[in-house]
Structure formats: C-alpha cells, structure tokens
Design brief:
4-stranded antiparallel β-sheet, single chain, about 40% helix, Aspartate Aminotransferase, domain 2, about 15% strand, 13 helices, globular, Aspartate Aminotransferase, domain 1, 7-stranded mixed β-sheet
Length: about 375
C-alpha cells in the first residue's frame, strides 16, 4: 500500500522544483512533478539493473512494446501494432520533431491556448509560424474552440499541423468525443496533421475515460501522432522516456525524418522504468488517483472560500488553473511567493491573470499552502479596504 502522506525531503537533492526556492520557506507547487515516492516495483527494477554495473548503449527491452500494446487494448480498446510505436526521450522532443518534420519553412502550426508552454516555443524553434486560438471560459469551464479553429484554418491555408493537448494542460480539461470529432473533421478537410500530446491520459480523476484522438475514426488514425509517457503518472520525469503511436506509414516516416540528427536514444533507466511502471504498477496508479481526487476536492473547497480567486474544474492532471485576475495584482508571482507559495505564472501558458498550482503533494503540504494563500489574500483585502 502506497503512503502518499509520507513527506520526503527534496531540498538538497538537485530537485529543480525545490531548489528554485533554496534557502527559503516557500513551498514549490509549480513544475509538474509529484512529491510522492515512486512505486517500489520501479525502484527494485532500477536497483537490480544498477547492480549489474555496466551502462553501455542499450536497446529497448523486448517486452516493452508488447506491454504498451496490451495497455492500449486494456485502457482504450485500441489495437496498436508493434511497428507503430516509436520511442522518444520525451514528449517535448516529440513536439519539436513534429514541427521540424511535418511543417515546411513557409507553412504554419496552430494550437489552442492557454497551453503547456513548449507548444508555443516548438514552432519558433524551427522558424515556423504559430497561430494561437484562444479558449474562452464558459460557465467556469473551457470548451475547445472548434468553430474558431475552423474559421482560422479557412484563413490560414498554409497551416499543416495542429498541436493538441489532451488532457489539456494547464486548464485540466478532458476533451470529449464531440470535441475530438470536430477537431479531426476540420483537420481532415484542411489536410492538417495532428500531433496529440496525451501525457496526462492516465490521470483522469473522475468516472470518465480518456479518448485517444486517433481512436475517434479511421480518418483520425490516418492523420494523428499520439504521444504518451509514464513520466507524469508514475513521477519519472527525471528519467525521461516517452513514445509515439503513428498508424499511417507515410506520417510515421515524415516524423522519423524530423528527428534525424536531433532525437537521442533513450537511457537505460528510462527503458527499465517504463517497463516496470506499465507492467507492474497499475494498483499504485489507482491508489494515486484516489489521493489526487481527494486533494483536488480539498483544494477546490478551500479556493471557493477565498474571495478573489476561482478554480476551474480539474477533470484530469494534478494541475489546478486559478483565476486571480480579480485580485488586481501588479505581479502575481511575487505576491504568492511572498505568501510562501511558488506557483507557475499564467502568462507563460498564454493565460494572463491566471496561476497554475500543482496539488500532487502530501495533504499536509497542500493544507499549509492553502492556509498561506488564504492569509495573504485576506491581508490584501484588509489593506485595500483601509
């Protein structure tokens, strides 16, 4: 049984998350890694491999692709062939590979915002133009702007690639079948490829199922690159390791060409951790989801009681999207850091007036963070009222 209440000291461990605030009492709740110990099965597998003592170039474990095929069948009733799986050092590398391989110098990329910031930088890394379609909050949630995307693509006829985030980081949405069908149909009509980042697909918090974009239809399979990884779900970000599923051989080859000279092989420990996670750790994942649901619900209740901040519903991920615009802060990052909580600044996701909070931590840490936020906002309201 996993102990998600266990606090493991990460200060001084070369943790990017915690070292940002070294020498302070600020609680880091920004970057998307979890403050939970990984499943013991992964630790044991890594320890056994490390004991061998030689770390030369490794090939993929023979069992790994078969385990991925079985997992796609189990979770999504999706039939995937071994040759349709390509390994990547990470999803961010895959976004760049897609922009490089599928989009010419005079062509463009489109994405919906607010979105994980590498979506915004990947096209620019290769000199490709990016079109942004803003999502509009409606009754507290964030529907995908399907109609606006259709209008934009009719205008931007040079668009060749949609970068899609599903589940949607940072807004916590799980796109539904109607939205995905609309997206696929627009892309099909306009000869636009889809690169679908689904790294949070196993972190669906309620009684719903993730729908891989490529499973919507035969047409979707032909135009979609699906990227997944165990790194978010099993807290393996420091080890890396991801994969793409590409049904269309032509699309697969173009994607491969986009990585030539850029994409490195996976590390020994990436392969080992991926295999152990997918093969041995499903009970741990179910326990994690229960803990994250409780944390999400606690956080939502606390935020609901703080005047001036609202929280979008979190259907998937462990990331809360907080609207702080009503606080009228000159520098939201500085305000919350002064309160003792380090959050992700909304503008980096193209979300002015918002902050992102990572609630994948022991409940005790989350309670303390909420107390600090509530106190800071209360003091702000008192000072404004004077």
């Amino acid at each position: 049984m996993s102990d998600f209440d266990l606090f493991l000291e990460r200060r001084g461990s070369n943790s990017a998350k915690w070292d940002r605030y070294a020498g302070t009492e600020i609680l880091p709740m920004w970057v998307a890694d979890m403050d939970f110990k990984v499943p013991q099965q992964i630790i044991d597998a890594l320890s056994e491999r490390a004991a061998h003592g030689i770390f030369g170039y490794d090939s993929e474990p023979a069992e790994l692709k078969q385990v991925i095929v079985q997992r796609m069948e189990m979770l999504y009733d999706w039939e995937v062939d071994l040759n349709e799986i390509l390994f990547l050092p990470g999803v961010v590398a895959g976004l760049n590979q897609a922009c490089r391989g599928l989009v010419g110098p005079d062509e463009s990329v489109i994405t919906a915002t607010p979105v994980y910031f590498p979506f915004l930088s990947a096209p620019e890394n290769w000199g490709r133009k990016l079109h942004r379609i803003p999502c509009r909050k409606n009754r507290g949630t964030w529907p995908f702007p399907v109609e606006q995307m259709a209008a934009n693509m009719a205008e931007y006829t040079e668009t060749k690639l949609l970068l899609l985030c599903n589940p949607f980081n940072p807004i916590g949405r799980l796109l539904d079948a109607k939205e995905l069908s609309g997206i696929v149909e627009i892309c099909r009509k306009n000869n636009v490829w889809i690169c679908s980042d689904e790294i949070h697909c196993e972190l669906v918090l309620d009684d719903r199922s993730h729908i891989p974009t490529a499973t919507i239809s035969r047409e979707a399979e032909e135009i979609t690159i699906t990227m997944m990884a165990p790194t978010k779900t099993f807290n393996l970000a420091g080890l890396g390791g991801a994969f793409a599923i590409i049904k269309n051989p032509e699309l697969r080859e173009q994607f491969i060409q986009g990585g030539k000279g850029m994409i490195s092989r996976l590390t020994t420990f990436a392969y080992i951790s991926m295999l152990a996670a997918y093969r041995d750790c499903e009970p741990w994942r179910r326990d994690l989801l229960a803990y994250l649901r409780a944390n999400r619900d606690y956080l939502a209740n606390r935020i609901d009681g703080i005047t001036g901040i609202s929280m979008s519903p979190v259907e998937a991920t462990y990331l809360a999207w907080l609207d702080v615009s009503m606080l009228n802060l000159d520098d939201p990052m500085e305000f919350f850091e002064s309160a003792g909580v380090g959050l992700s600044d909304g503008p980096q996701f193209d979300g002015q007036g918002y902050m992102r909070l990572n609630f994948a931590c022991p409940l005790e840490t989350l309670v303390e963070a909420c107390d600090r936020i509530e106190s800071a906002v209360s003091n702000l309201s008192s000072s404004v009222g004077k």
